[in-house]
Amino acid sequence: MNTNVQLDIADISISFGGIQALTEVSFQIPAGGLAAIIGPNGAGKTTIFNCICSVYKPDIGDILLDGESLKALKPHKVAEKGIARTFQNIELFAELTVIDNLMLGRHLHNGSGILSGALFYGKAVREEVSHRKRVEEIIDFLEIEQVRKKKVINLPYGIQKRVELGRAIAMDPKVLLLDEPTSGMNVEETEDMARFVLDIKEEMGTTILMVEHDMGVVMDLAEKIMVLDFGLKIAEGTPEEVQNNPKVIQAYLGEDAV
Ligand SMILES: Nc1ncnc2c1ncn2[C@@H]1O[C@H](COP(=O)(O)OP(=O)(O)O)[C@@H](O)[C@H]1O
Ligand SMILES: [Mg+2]
After folding, report:
1. Are residues 33 and 160 in the same domain?
2. What is the DSSP letter of 35?
3. Domain containing 128: what range?
4. Pocket lining for ligand 1, CB < 6 angstroms
């Protein structure tokens, strides 16, 4: 594995009114790595994703992608730099088809704008064809060919989660942030999702940071784990190190682990 740090969460703190949501949290994710953030509800996991994407601005600290600060950028600029995400609650265009949702993933961030599209019609058509081709590849990759022309709203929840993953990888990101990719899934859907996450890392070389509550998935997939509790990093290490850390057992794994 490449050990160059690609995504650097550098000592960030943020508070909302009286709530200190994150306190001096640092975590480095190597290029091509697969890392996870775990911790109880309200620990600050989604807040970290919102800081990375510039939806929130940390009060102190910084977020660096390949050494470049993202803090001053607007969220869409962060996406253009190569960070894509999925959400804890699915965010798709429910009335659009699977293909159209994935096409939007490409157009929002890689496409020629409306104006350049009008000025360079030929270029826009060629781009459209290449976007379409990439979207079809992703649809094959995620094994959702049968539903490609269906509206998202009519699909089962587990498939919607997969489409949302497709929308994120349609951006060809350097770094993929997955917020609870298996939440609400049954065992089979969870296994499928875990396999797709691993395949994205291995076949596309994408750096992945996931927030995940399913400890089986985390321990199987993650090379590096950070544990948060009340906005503080209480542990960091390999799955084995984290599992055997008494602080983690007490704070997070609770009665399941004791
Ligand atoms: N926009 C916000 N306004 C106020 N409080 C927030 C906001 N976003 C997050 N928080 C608070 O920050 C804490 C961490 O939330 P969150 O990051 O969603 O936790 P997790 O994803 O680990 O369950 C919670 O106490 C939550 O209420
Ligand atoms: Mg969350």
Report:
1. no
2. E
3. 94-172
4. 16, 19, 21, 39, 41-47
